[in-house]
């Protein structure tokens, strides 16, 4: 009986364990299903990731564009430090070659040219082209309105050819900008148009240079030839002695060219020459005035000496006083060291370089009335040891100027 009871107890335990395992097995699919449902809900609540934005396509250079602002400065380099060459108005077409730091490099617009030292070039017959004769030569970027011209836009080597587009500007010659010269504009002020509008950049300086055998005199602007002739006439007159230079014909030549010219660089060159001639003529007139003043002073001095000689001859004492009397000319100045001091010697006689000649005193003349005037004087001269200068007691005085 005890064995039967033991067996029945074990069987009951086994049945209870089986029930627990069955319950666990029934709960597992439900938990898995609940977990899957939770993941599905989370996935539904998370928005799908947006596809990565495509980077804007890099522009293909060169491309055509147009200016979008009302008036924009075009500079010789990519920055405000560089000087302005010209200004372009809204809608002006441009060709963009590259971009750097927010600045677009453009092919040089109209009005931009290069400046090269004349000493670095050998100008061909006709004056429309030149060959670099130096080992290398700088091309400075400039324009008719540029206030400075230090920016180097290109370097030309010995034997390179450039097109000459203007007359000499001092030590420089105007040339067409070579292929690598660029002008710069802020990128925000240009919008692209179509690449079809852009032609190859062959370089103005290279394509515009004619072969030496192709240069024909009729291609030369006749006004440039006339300007060179006027320059030659001016140089010929300037080597003449002062007072013998006749510049009126040169003035007439330059004025005639200026009246006919339609190019700004020719007008500017003629006006500079006319201004130079006008300034020189004023200087020459002043020189002649000073020369005539000297001549008049000499005449007045001679007259004083003549009157002095006549007076002494009449008195019969000329031989006795020749060593005592003093005759001279100069300008009366006040002695600065004695200003405000009651002393009989208050004035001096100076030469044209303001160098003191003598000091003056007089009982016959109020010398203060002659300060700043050129006078001729006669009087007795006495050496002042303490002052180390001669003092003249004025006996006779004549205003010369």
Name the features:
19 strands, OB fold (Dihydrolipoamide Acetyltransferase, E2P), seven-stranded antiparallel sheet, 401 residues, alpha+beta
Structure in words:
With 401 residues, this protein is α+β, with helices and mostly antiparallel strands. It folds into three domains: 63-210, no CATH class; 222-314; 323-399, OB fold (Dihydrolipoamide Acetyltransferase, E2P) (Beta Barrel). It has six helices and 19 strands. The chain has helices at residues 2-45, 204-207, 222-238, 248-260, 264-315, 318-321, and strands at residues 63-67, 71-75, 84-89, 93-100, 103-106, 112-117, 121-123, 129-132, 136-143, 152-157, 161-169, 172-175, 183-186, 190-192, 325-334, 347-350, 356-361, 374-384, 389-399. The strands form four sheets. The chain has a seven-stranded antiparallel beta sheet with strand order 7-8-11-12-6-9-10. It has a five-stranded antiparallel beta sheet with strand order 13-5-4-1-14, with no helix packed on it. Strands 15-16-17-19-18 form a five-stranded mixed β-barrel. α3 runs antiparallel to α4 and α4 packs antiparallel against α5. It is elongated and about 110 Å long. Residues 4-8, 10-47, 204-219 and 317-323 have low confidence and may be disordered.
